[in-house]
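Input (structure):
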């Protein structure tokens, strides 16, 4: 699959590594432009190339957003139209600035991203495991157990596409529900956030029957 990744820091470059290793083609961008990503491009190998943010957004059927949440409004919304967008971000008031709607819990951070990227289908995933654990915890399909990755989103087809990607890199997707209710179940501050749970255990903790 062709995957665009916006954000080439800890989580973006980890996902680029995992997806290129799985044989996917990745176009990755940061805020400073592709020339600043040549070392990473070289390190990732022939399945990766560095591009502008707009090119990464338009590159594939799926685009991963892995920038500090406070920068989501900088994303060029038109370029995401019709795509599945994986929101790997988390709201952190210390880093992103205080947002009253998020503080009061009237909306989730992924719902705000969905409003900004109105023509895309936003799915929240890969936000709840630390980058260095994500790099190492993947297991082959035949393994007894796999770690669970919570997923929330409003569009069923987009979610299924993300489930496939999660399985490709050695994890088991766990459907947490819609972006509103489900997204709340795997945000920072929840018991599953960075808890590195086996899929069955994650399912039990977030109260879902099975994916
Ligand atoms: N670190 C983790 O373990 C982890 C795990 C799960 C989720 N997350 C979430 O993932 C997000 C990124 O975290 P991180 O730790 O990977 O951050 P990071 O290491 O600081 O990397 C941030 C990346 O985003 C890029 N960026 C910033 N603003 C941008 C913009 N407007 N357009 C394009 N690229 C932009 C930066 O590019 P420049 O360097 O060029 O500015 C940098 O490549 C956060 O919301 C975080 O909460 C982190």
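Output (sequence):
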């Amino acid at each position: 699959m062709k995957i665009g990744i916006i954000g080439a820091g800890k989580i973006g470059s980890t996902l680029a590594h995992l997806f290129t290793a799985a044989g996917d083609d990745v176009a990755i961008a940061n805020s400073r432009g592709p020339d600043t990503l040549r070392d990473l491009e070289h390190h990732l190998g022939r399945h990766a190339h560095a591009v502008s943010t707009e090119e990464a957004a338009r590159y594939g059927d799926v685009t991963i957003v892995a920038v500090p949440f406070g920068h989501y409004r900088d994303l060029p919304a038109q370029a995401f139209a019709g795509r599945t967008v994986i929101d790997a971000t988390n709201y952190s008031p210390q880093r992103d600035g205080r947002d009253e709607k998020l503080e009061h819990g009237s909306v989730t951070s992924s719902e705000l991203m969905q409003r900004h990227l109105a023509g895309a289908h936003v799915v929240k995933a890969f936000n709840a495991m630390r980058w260095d654990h994500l790099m190492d915890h993947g297991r082959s399909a035949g393994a007894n157990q796999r770690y669970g990755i919570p997923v929330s989103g409003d569009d069923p087809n987009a979610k299924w596409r993300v489930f496939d990607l999660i399985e490709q890199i050695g994890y088991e997707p766990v459907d947490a529900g819609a972006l509103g209710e489900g997204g709340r179940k795997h945000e920072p501050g929840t018991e599953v956030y960075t808890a590195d749970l086996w899929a069955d255990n994650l399912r039990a903790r977030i109260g879902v029957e099975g994916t």
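Notes: Strands lie at 2-6, 25-29, 48-50, 62-65, 84-87, 121-124, 148-153, 172-177. The chain has one domain: 2-206.
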